[in-house]
Amino acid sequence: MQQRNLAHIASQAFNEPLLLEPAYARVFFSALGKEIGISRLNLPDEQLTTSDMDVITANFMTEGKRKPRFYQVKNGIAVLPVTGTLVHKLGAMRPLSGMTGYDGITARLEQAISDPEVKGVLLDIDSPGGQVAGAFDCADVIARLRDEKPIWALSNDMACSAAMLIAAACSYRLNTQTGRMGSIGVLMAHSNYSGALEQAGLEVTLIYAGSHKVDGNPYEKLPEDVRADFQAKIDAARDMFAQKVSEYTGMSFQSILETEAAVYDGENAVSIGFANRIVNSADAIDVMSSELKLKPITRGISMIDEAAAQATLQAATMQERQRISGIIAHPEAVGREDLAGSLALHSDMSAEQAAEVLKSVPAMVAPNTDVVASITGCDAAKGREALAGVLSKEPGMTLASAERIMSGVPQGSSDAFVQFMEKEGAQAAGGDNAGNQGDEIDQLASIIKQQG
């Protein structure tokens, strides 16, 4: 639910000089009074009751008022920003948190195409790409709408990967002299936490039905058959990517594949066929207006439209920020910071939904950096650096215990000692158990001495 700071609005509206047209002032104070609970509004020539204020507000909203624009219009050109990481569904009309939703691009584009004052659309792109999900549908919508009105793309200063797909779907493509275009390829990342979990003494057991249900899980090394399946999907997505760019631009499918996902700067992007011409970004709108033979348009800015658009943007921005901070700062994110960040920035989960996901993943216990520094930096660690490194990571290890252990090992033989410990699975524990295990460590040290 969007929240409005009515108290702040009221403080700016009452006991302050305002520059408002009288008829609109009547509407404004009726709407504000209704929201903050005023039962009667006294105007110079009339008194308005709550019912009167309702009628005035309702009439104003239904008298053919144009929807707020979520783009700027200059000389008949609607400028739509496409910035940051591109994601499937952002649930907002403008970029938030460094991301742009494919749904936002198509929604704003459809509004601009239906706007009678808009003669053409310029996508102002500065994006390294993003998700595959939603990208091809968005590009197809752009390619379809460009038959209704010209849709140009400006790489300002990056249109790569998914952003290149969006640019390719446009009628005409501009690039700045330092703009980067291309990267027509697909990638996938797999995380393997099995080693870290083993070091932390944690074991994850997956219980599932269906042999492919846990393909790509982060708790084991990626099996070769699963890797081959993922590679096949990646290859198919790349072929689809290249085919779409070929259809949109007229370039040959093979020539696109032969770029091997390379990125081209400035004039090189024009030479390869990704861009049509180089422009200064400040001149892009004028260049497009000139090509379309549009006359400069001068019109006033609707205060109502701009205020409504700004209020919608501010509310959506605040809501998204609260969602992201709620996930990252949630208690369940401790020890799972990377996953929490991914859920916050690459999904539309609420903080509560993300907490349930985080709770199901074991938290990673980070070594005590103070203990690590004290052990690896003590005098006893000199000539026994490898052993000091191992001991500093042992759970419960103290500086005193580590010094006693290292003092029983000759300088220079710690590498052999570490190898022996790893082979035999010996562990040195500090704290209350240090005394009990000290003899074992001394015996191991003696063995190392005997070995030479």
Automatic annotation (TrEMBL):
Its EC number is 3.4.-.-. GO terms for molecular function: hydrolase activity. It comes from the Bacteria. Keywords: Hydrolase, Protease, Serine protease. InterPro entries: ClpP/crotonase-like_dom_sf, Peptidase_S49, Protein_C. Residues 144-294 form the Peptidase S49 domain. Belongs to the peptidase S49 family. This is Phage protein. It comes from Buttiauxella ferragutiae ATCC 51602.
